[in-house]
Design a protein that fits this description.
Layout (H helix, E strand, L loop, with lengths): L1 E6 L5 H13 L4 E6 L11 E7 L8 H9 L11 H7 L8 E9 L9 H11 L9 E5 L10 H20 L5 H10 L1
Parallel strand pairs: 1-2, 1-3, 3-4, 4-5
Helix pairs in contact: 1-5
Length: 185
Amino acid sequence: MDALVVYETQHGHTRRVAQTITAGLLEGNRVVLERCRPGLSADGYDLVVIGAPTHHGRLPTAASRRRRQVSGGPADGSEFGIREWLAGDLRPTPHATIALFDTLTSRLRLSRGSAAWEAARLLRRHCANPVLPPRSFLLSSPTGPLCRGELSQAALWANRLNAFGRAGSRGAGRPGEDRARAADD
């Protein structure tokens, strides 16, 4: 199975989760870990895993990235992230399995908004459906660190993605829809 793990990060926590997921997918697979950037292609991958931090219950925007930098976040100068990638550059292979995750503070978990759920809505506009419900990994505060046990949970989620990704790489029908229904059973 060929997998792409693409992420956006502000304080490094989403990157740590992405690295853990990548490590969990490596056994017997070709896995590429990439920070989101313009021109990044998802074509040719059996599994595409997408991760982003949650800003105010949503995917980061250029404006929210600038606000985070002004309020003490790292100044990487990026105006481009997962939101922009999903809107323009994402072109997965038709049979690709797509999975979404985000990082968010534990207090936001009670609300309905998260970056991964918004990404799922954006993907549906492109006629792509994530195979599993989006997964959130919790931070103790907006600047972190990750809550205890979250990296272990990311490793377990990677094992689950392995099973779905391998099924999709065998080309069984429309894997996103079939596996999504099976996951709900």
